[in-house]
Structures are given as C-alpha cells and as structure tokens.
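B., you asked whether I could sanity-check this one before it goes into the benchmark set. Here's the sequence:
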Amino acid sequence: MAMTEGITGINVQDLKEFSAETRVRKKLIHSQMLSSEVVYYAPGQETVLHLHPKQDEVFYVVEGSGAITFEDDEIAVTAGSLVFVPAGIRHGVRTDPESQLVLLFTKGPGVPPPTVRN
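And here's what the prediction gave me:
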C-alpha cells in the first residue's frame, strides 16, 4: 500500500453554498479517529446549544463573523479564529446579523463503524 493511499484533499471554497432557510452542512472527512465538516451559515443563523459526551471539537472560521456560544458565555470569532471545545461542554454557533459564516469543525474521536450483527 502506498503511503498516500487514503489521503483526501478538499477545497472548502469549492463547496460554498448558503441557504436562507437553514445552515448548509457538508461532510469532509469521516473515520474512526475523526470527523470533519464545513458549515455555511447565512446571516443570523445559528446552531442550538448541544454537547458531545465523548468528542472534543475544534472550530476554525474560514470566513465571516459570529460567536461560539456556551452556557452563559460566548467567544466572538472572525476569519482565522480557532476555538477548542472539550467533550461534555454545551456549545453552539451563531452568526452576526450582517455576516455569512463559513465554519470548519473537526471532532475526535470519530464515530466507529456500525457493528455487524449476525
């Protein structure tokens, strides 16, 4: 097997798609070790508070502005911002009212493959 087998290269700008109705999510990478997606938010859209019991999550802002929200707090983000959220912390995302937001996130560990039942 070649050392480069399984390597994936993606330009998230080529996938750019916004919707006025809802955020647009596109899967980039999915393995047992990590999962990564890019999310395109129109101005004013958000993701409600939620948590991942066993997955750490890293957010990288490709473009736009908004905030990574927590229980009673938030971190303002703009293009180039990186935010780490440990497993078990309730968090969400919101855009600024006048800005689109392109957000890349990676979670690990990834989701194990489904168990095969006989």
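One thing to flag: The beta strands are 24-30, 35-41, 46-50, 56-70, 74-78, 82-85, 91-95, 101-108. Otherwise nothing jumped out at me.
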